[in-house]
Amino acid sequence: QVQLQELGGGSVQAGGSLRLSCLTSGYSATRDCIAWVRQAPGKEREGVAYIEMYGDIDYTYSVKGRFTISQDNAKKIAYLEMENLRPEDTGMYYCAAREGLCYLTSANLGKYTYWGQGTQVTVSS
After folding, report:
1. What residues contact 110, with CB distance under 8 A and at least 6 apart?
2. Alpha carbon distance 83, 59 (integer Å)
3. What is the CA radius of gyration of the chain?
């Protein structure tokens, strides 16, 4: 059974940093895509970043230059380094995984097969 677990959320002031980790287990084959998705209260889910197994990466525009996604394939852990955090980054952050293409658009987030329980990130001004 595939499981994803997010770690590393918390509360920081604007301008601060956090690192999120996504621990994956239960894969019998290499999964192709890991993504970070966030959801703020009252808003729809937003794809933040993805990383493909062979390293292709993309970010949503609002986090480019501030967030960095990476993965340790040997440890099966994905990371999201977040710097210069803003209050609008506040939300529940989820990692999601699927086999096949990666997506960031809201319309395609439902194509992710596996999801973690989420970790809260709160950025105060």
Report:
1. none
2. 14
3. 13
Q: Does residue 124 register a pLDDT over 80?
A: yes
Task: Please write the tens of the pLDDT for every residue from 17-37.
Answer: 999 999 998 865 556 899 999
* 33 within 8 A of 55, measured Cβ to Cβ: no
Mean of pLDDT values over 54-67: 95
**Burial of 97 (C-beta count, 10 Å sphere; 0-12/13-18/19+):** buried
C-alpha distances in Å from residue 73, one per residue of 67, 79, 86: 19, 11, 30
pLDDT reading at 95 higher than 90: yes
* Cβ-contact 107, 24 below 8 angstroms: no
Give the span between the Cα atoms of 32 and 18, in whole angstroms: 25
* C-alpha pair distances (Å), 75 with each of 21, 25, 59: 11, 10, 23
